[in-house]
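Repro:
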Amino acid sequence: MSKEEATWLIIKGLGLYLLLNAFMALPDLITAISTAYAYSNILSSVSSLASSESGKYGEMLRQLNDAYTGAYKNILLGPVIRIVLYSAVGIYLLKGGGFLFRLLNRQPNKSDIS
């Protein structure tokens, strides 16, 4: 096996590995979507209670509402970024990965070494 064939094999294997990781992140995305849906239901209940209550209890509900709002917006971000990046790089590598192939197979000039 020549160096070029080994490089192609490594590039294709890495692309397949990244695509498999993107598919394995799909259950995380489904879980994040259902969790965000549950948080949105909780938020609608809490916000209606917070608007009707006054005093210390109402302030506590407003703080809880703010905390849940910040949390459920960030839940979806991780799996979506992982799926998009892994699948984009995986597809690029499976389609050829020309830049990476040329980079790995570049022969240095004799003048660069000395």
